[in-house]
Each structure stands twice: as structure tokens, then as C-alpha cells.
Amino acid sequence: MKSINNINELKEDLYSSIIKVQVDSIINDTPKTKIIVLKRTDKKSLPIFYPGDYINIYANIDGVNHLESFSLFSSNDDAMNGEYRIVVKSNKKKPLSKFLFDNLKYQDKLLISKPLSDSSFTFSPLREEENIIAIGYDNDIVSFYSLAHYLIKYKLDYKLNIIHICSNDNNVVLKEKFKKLNIYNENINYEYIIINDDNMRPAKDVINKYLAEFNSFFVAGNIEFYKNINKIIYEYNLPKKNLRFKKFNHVVNRNMVKKYELTVKSIEQELTMHCSSNESLFKAILKSEYGKNFLLNNDLNDEVYAQIVEGSVMTIAKFDQEANLQNQIVNLNDSYPCENVTIRIN
After folding, report:
1. pLDDT tens digits, one per residue of 163-212
2. Residue 3 in contact with residue 105, Cβ under 8 Å?
């Protein structure tokens, strides 16, 4: 059996904001999932995080560098004590997840990122409606556990309705933990349903039970799930500000990441910077030395829209459809380059 310590040859200085942790315990949750408790190797506190945040884990498996994202479902009290919790699923489509599920042992060392946020998905008391409907598919339900903890700890007056849609009984992760949340806060409801095909109509019946006059929707799942559940959510005619999809990239094989150039045009200037297939155009702009000043000077925020002048991008908001027509308007936070791209920001 391989050891993560023997194969993980990545060095800390290859990545920014890297933290060394070790496995403190492994808890079997379902036949296909395990809860992994991680603690800092230097015994210090871990950075606190917002509900919906995630960490990246880096590893080299058989000479291939892998990066994969995992939602945090522990609390900030745990973080202050130097502990994060994640759920790992045995999934052949995600080599790092499967490797960790099969091989990870007590006191194995890992390299992780500091908590990362998807600003459009992170819970914010200033913008949420009082009734929150959180819909998660299989393992992606995990991100809502930290949200429930947050509401309980700070005694916030929100109603949280967690709807877990599962492909089979083996994917009802953290079931007992979710069911106990109502004991601590009667405004937190949890329900799971098994749907093993593309027909999401049973989900609508459950959603309708929890609808109020004004609602905030949070949705976490894979692309196919987004396609299917979006057909139902669309019928509610929600304002865009009340609908949030989790957008982080689950899996990256760094040996297959492609490098491109991004040219940004505005009325006053034209800038060219590096970008890559594993990060959004918005992040590419933020990472560039002059891109940060460009954003500040143009008074832009996370929801930045731009017009494609040349090239093509993949857009998560359109479920990985390719946008390559000139004059196409895209959200830079949802768009990933397929080749060299030129965009125009007004």
C-alpha cells in the first residue's frame, strides 16, 4: 500500500499560503465516505473561515501533481484549536479523493491551502433573505454544515432548510450530524431524498414545503446536477442576487493545465497578462501585478462582466458551455480560458 508521505514530494514554497497538517483521526461515515480530521503539525491555530469556504489539498501521485478542493464542515472553534474537518469520498473520477480514501492513515502529512472563498456563494447576513433553502447533491451537501454551525453559534434569526439530494443510500453523508442540528436550533430543517435519475420533480415537492415569501437559494453539486435542478429553480423567478451556485473547481491535474494570454481592453488602456485553464479570468486579473491596480482604478467588484472580443472561454454559469461568439457577455468570475482571450471591460 502506498503512503501519502512517500509520494507527496511537493515543496511548501511551490505554492502560496500553504499549511502543513497531519491526519488526527479518520471516521467512517458511509461505505463510500470518510470524515478526515486534520491538525496543524506545528500545533498552532488554523485560519478561521466563512460558511461555504473550502481548502485545496495538494499531492503528487505516481509523478502527477494533483489539486482537489474540499469543503470545510467544522466550526471556527475547531479552527482556533488547530483542527479542520473534511469529507473524502471514494470516487474514480477524482484520483486524489480516491487515493486519500483508500490509503490515508493516522498521522499522515498533507499540504493544504488556507481557506478559500467563492464570494458569490459565501453566506453574508447583510444580503440574505430570512428563509434560506440550501440544496446539495451527494457529497457537496457538506458545505452547508458549517453554515448551520454559524447560525447556531451566533444565534442569527434565519430559517435554514437543508435539502440533500442523493443518488443512492450510500451517498447520504453526515446524515446523523445533520439530523441533530435541529436540536440546537429549531429553525434548521434537514431532509434527504433519493433520486437516481435526471428527473428532479420530486425535489420540487420538497422545496415547495420550505418556500416563504422571500428566499435565498444556495445550490452545491456537479454540472449535471446544476442543469437538472436549475430547470426547477427557474420556475420560481428568483432575483439573481438570491440565487447562488457553488463554483469552485473540484479537481485539477496540474500536468494538464494549459497556459494562455489574457488581453483586457478598456477605454483608457489595454493590458496583457498570463492566465491558465484552471483559474477564472477574474482571478487571473487579480493575480497580475498591474491587474490589481486596473481593478481598483475601474472601481470593479467580484461580479465583473466583460465582452469577448477574441478567443473562447468555458462558463460555469452556462454549465460548461463554450462561449466563443464575438460580443458575447460573460461573468469573469465564471469564465475559464480555452485559448488566448481578448476581452473588453467598459
Report:
1. 999 988 888 999 999 999 999 999 999 999 999 777 788 899 999 999 99
2. yes
Any domain includes 251: no
**What is the pTM (predicted TM-score) of this model?**
0.71
Number of domains in the chain: 3
Task: Match 441533530 to its residue by C-alpha cell.
Answer: 180
In terms of domains, do 236 and 269 share one? no
CB burial of 246-261 (b: ≥16 within 10 Å; e: otherwise) equals: bbbebebeeeeeeebe
On the 0-12 / 13-18 / 19+ scale of CB atoms within 10 A, 277 is middle
Is 219 within a domain?
yes
Determine contact, residues 342/311, Cβ cutoff 8 Å: yes
User: Which of 29-33, 111-115, 191-195, 299-303 has the least mean pLDDT?
Assistant: 299-303
d(CA 242, CA 287): 28
Domain holding 212, by residue range, is 131-245
User: Domain with 81 in it: what CATH number?
Assistant: 2.40.30.10
